[in-house]
Specification:
alpha/beta; TIM Barrel; Immunoglobulin-like; 2 domains; eight-stranded parallel beta sheet; six-stranded antiparallel beta sheet; 12 helices; binds alpha-D-galactopyranose
Length: about 400
């Protein structure tokens, strides 16, 4: 009897200690974004030409294309939805969005979530109304509409930072602004993912979590070109240690399906973003997708790498000029590996298993061709297309 009571007490003690150790991280991120957020954002394709009708059509297509069932949940309205403030200072959408609450209800009715956009400055990047001086009021309005995600874009807040007097004071001013909105969102009691956008300034990965960020942009804007996509993607080397459940590095939204890259280049885009544990926010017109675009965006094995529950971001293993090998440790003990050829012509690339911490024999699966290649001794070599990738899942035997 005495032993049973003692062991019960020991189990109880273990649970309490575990809860205490997990508590700070959960409190900071509110338990949100346990894996990198997946969804769609209006900016890359529609920019200022976004309205209620278009957003509803994107939500419809998210479901009918199978993207929702593949994990894409957030429908995020970017800049240019903002209208004027009324006499009480309450923000209203402009005429493109007649009823934000009705739109949120529509999106929620499809099993999706709705995101919105603002700036800590007086104006957004497209010169619409920002949240400066109205942070709590705006957070409250978003919560009343039923908003689930906020992208908070520095834009005109740069002026406030310039007035701060010194680089240190400017840095503090920026952190305070993000913390202020984080607290305002928390105060609403509604779980709202907080996405920081300040283009990676002041090494945001070092402090993004401390101001309540669930994700933070690590770079300037992406464009629909192989050169810009890879410039951003491959510059993420060394950042892996700053990402984890609830707080992610964000190398910007996807360009897949927008037409500026070749299919093999979009495959590189998806593979690199999955290895980087990057948020997967499609940036194309979901209502007009080719079957190839849908296949690229919904590949279950690629998404499984991105969304791996361990939440370890991948990093560069080795670069031999434009030939780069990246690897990401996965929850089941296997590794996702990308052999990237940044040349414009095919090249042979070889990975030694010892380079990714595996012993001599390992099982290799080619992810995009969905083929088990069997057990291999020592390493694996493949022909990699120009601007292309061979994405592998390698497990110890
Ligand atoms: C900035 C951001 C973009 C987009 C635009 C909107 O450039 O980095 O992602 O939100 O503003 O104006």
């Amino acid at each position: 009897m005495y032993w049973i009571q003692r062991s019960r007490f020991a189990i109880f003690l273990c649970i309490i200690l575990y809860m205490k150790s997990a508590a700070p991280a959960m409190a900071q991120t509110g338990g949100l974004a346990a894996t990198p957020p997946m969804g769609w954002n209006s900016w890359n394709h529609f920019a200022g030409k976004i309205d209620d009708v278009t957003v509803r059509a994107q939500a419809d297509a998210m479901v009918s294309s199978g993207m929702r069932d593949a994990g894409y949940i957030y429908i995020n309205i970017d800049d240019t939805w903002e209208g004027e403030r009324d006499a009480k200072g309450v923000i209203h959408p402009n005429s493109k969005f007649p009823d934000m609450k009705a739109l949120a209800d529509y999106v929620h009715g499809k099993g999706l979530k709705l995101g919105i956009y603002s700036s800590p400055g007086p104006q957004t990047c497209a010169k619409y109304e920002g949240s400066y001086g109205h942070e709590e009021q705006d957070a409250q309005t978003y919560a009343e509409w039923g908003i689930d995600y906020l992208k908070y874009d520095l834009c005109s807040f740069k002026k406030m930072m310039d007035q701060a007097g010194s680089p240190e004071a400017a840095h503090r001013t920026m952190l305070d602004a993000y913390t202020k909105m984080h607290r305002a969102l928390q105060k609403t009691g509604r779980p709202i993912v907080f996405s920081l956008c300040q283009y990676g300034a002041d090494a945001v990965w070092r402090w993004g979590e401390s101001v309540g960020g669930n994700l933070w942009r690590t770079s300037g804007d992406i464009t629909d070109k192989y050169s810009r996509m890879t410039e951003i993607g491959f510059s993420q080397a060394g950042l892996s240690r700053y990402a984890g459940p609830g707080h992610w590095n964000d190398p910007d939204m996807l360009e897949v399906g927008n037409g500026g890259m070749k299919p093999g280049e979009y495959r590189t885009h998806m593979s690199l973003w999955a290895l980087l544990a990057a948020p997967l926010l499609a940036g194309n017109d979901l209502a007009k997708m080719t079957p190839e675009t849908i296949a690229l965006l919904t590949n279950r094995e690629v998404i499984a790498i991105d969304q791996d529950s361990a939440g370890h971001q991948g990093d560069r293993v080795r670069a031999e000029g434009p030939l780069e090998i990246w690897a990401r440790p996965l929850a089941d003990g296997s590794k996702a590996v990308g052999l990237f050829n940044r040349f414009d012509w095919p090249m042979e690339m070889r990975l030694e298993f010892s380079e990714i911490g595996l012993t001599k024999r390992a099982r290799v699966r080619d992810v995009w061709s969905a083929k088990d290649l069997g057990g291999m001794e020592g390493g694996y070599a493949a022909q990699v297309p120009g601007h292309g990738v061979v994405l592998l899942r390698i497990s110890p035997e």
